[in-house]
Amino acid sequence: MSPRGVLPPNAREALSLDRRLVARFRADLARLIDDGRNSVLVAVSGGADSVALLLLAHAVLGKRCHAATVDHGLRPASGSEAAMVAQLCAARGIDHAILVGNLPERAGKTANLSARARLLRYRLLQHHAAAVGATWIATGHHGDDQLETLLMRLNRGAGLAGLAAIRRRSGRIIRPLLGWRRAELAGLVVGCGIEAVDDPSNVDDRYDRARLRKLLAGIDWLDVERIGVSVGALGDAEDALAWATRQALAEHGVLGEGSASIAAAGLPNEIVRRLVRACVEHVDSATEPTGSGLMRMVEALRLGRRVTMGDVLAEPRGDGADRMCWHFEHAPPRRGR
Q1: I need a labelling partner for 207 at 20 to 30 A (CA). Which of 19, 269, 295, 303 fits?
Q2: Which of 43, 52, 39, 34 is CA-nearest to residue 192?
Q3: pTM of the full predicted structure?
Q4: Where are the domains of the chain?
Q5: Given pLDDT bands bounded at 50, 70 and 90, which one contains residue 5?
Q6: Are 97 and 68 in contact (CB under 8 A)?
Q7: CATH annotation of 9-233
Q8: 279 and 285 Cβ atoms separated by less than 8 Å
Q9: What are residue 329's DSSP bridge partners?
């Protein structure tokens, strides 16, 4: 057994993938992009999921498959893990780069280390994709990730947007493995003679996802594929509501220079909530409306009260039924102590 994150000698030779798996992946990719013309940058951490994605993408795309590994420098082994991926790509003739950068500064209560690392990762990947001419960036999220994300967000009281969980396509990011299971991806990698990186955080009970993963391992009646279908339906519903909100904003709202107004009377509560969010973000993009904060703001406005969120002041304008006309602007500076 070779050390964790090191390729055994036979991994230098390109072992053949099962044709059925390649055909399945080709179909999954074709549902997302035009795989006959587009090039793809594959984000590869060295874990089994991303290595499987790399092998499948290279089998389908050939030279139009590029790879990159982001070394956040957060763990002592990250450098050797990135070098392992570089070695794997070199053995198979895949263009690869190791990307490094400084973590963005902490901004806001929710900007924890994982969030900052994710922001850096996607920023570096976007930049490198442009440099190599890749139209899309593919990540190795799979069906088990989808289930875990859905349950974690349910436990945190997420709304529809959160319950839509991991989307198959988001901007330039594609996730063609959402119909695949963790175990079959790991089996694919082992079958190619590759020993993938095993991130210790995956079994560290300090992390919610690691504890949930251990719990789910003992449950055999959950149908990840059917749950994925439900998540897709939630995503479609989210898209429909986002479209309806844009229509409502055009008909019932006015966005000015540093201000916004909406006429909320008669609109469904969810549309009103989304309109309020849009107004807050328009007035001050640095304010991050939370679900509970938005509901408190909507309730206060319905009762005819002025209310602030971050640096945004919202207040009803008019009397009686007209109090559903709400105005948003920058809040006046707070007095010093």
Answers
A1: 295
A2: 52
A3: 0.83
A4: 9-233, 256-330
A5: very low
A6: yes
A7: 3.40.50.620
A8: no
A9: 259, 313
